[in-house]
Write a structure and sequence with these properties.
The protein is α+β, with helices and mostly antiparallel strands and 135 residues long. The protein has 1 helix and 6 strands. It has a 4-stranded antiparallel beta sheet. Strands 3-4 form a two-stranded antiparallel ribbon. The mean pLDDT is 88.
């Protein structure tokens, strides 16, 4: 009778140990899944950020090359193709500078380019400012 009671108490303890082990393992799997989701979201954000940088570089080259005309009025364009989901805004502001002879430099503009896009963690944006001559 004493042996039977000792066996039942050990069986109960073994069951409790097993349940705690399964619970710890389940929590570990859930945390690992959460970490993987965060890693995937970070990779998506990084890829979209690189794509937005490339879109801004392309637009800057187009403005500098005279292919795209930037006016004083802000302009917004939703990009297509590879840059689907990225919106570019651009505008310019006249720059009032003088040369060493105190003569006003004309036809010099500061151009603002801003790319915005959505990611799993929220809206993101990048901005470039540069100078162009002419208009």
């Amino acid at each position: 009778m004493n042996r039977l009671r000792h066996f039942h108490s050990r069986s109960g303890f073994l069951l409790l140990e097993t349940m705690i082990g399964v619970a710890v393992f389940a929590i570990g799997v859930l945390v690992l899944g959460w970490c993987m989701e965060n890693c995937l979201n970070a990779e998506v954000v990084r890829n979209r950020d690189q794509l937005a940088r490339l879109a801004l570089e392309n637009r800057m080259s187009e403005v500098e090359g005279g292919v795209v005309q930037v006016t004083d009025e802000p302009f917004e364009e939703a990009l297509t193709g590879r840059f689907q989901g990225i919106t570019i805004r651009h505008s310019r502001v006249p720059v009032h500078l003088e040369n060493e002879k105190r003569e006003q430099l004309s036809n010099l503009f500061e151009v603002y380019l801003e790319a915005t896009w959505n990611t799993p963690v929220g809206p993101q944006s990048k901005t470039i400012r540069f100078y162009v001559v002419g208009g």
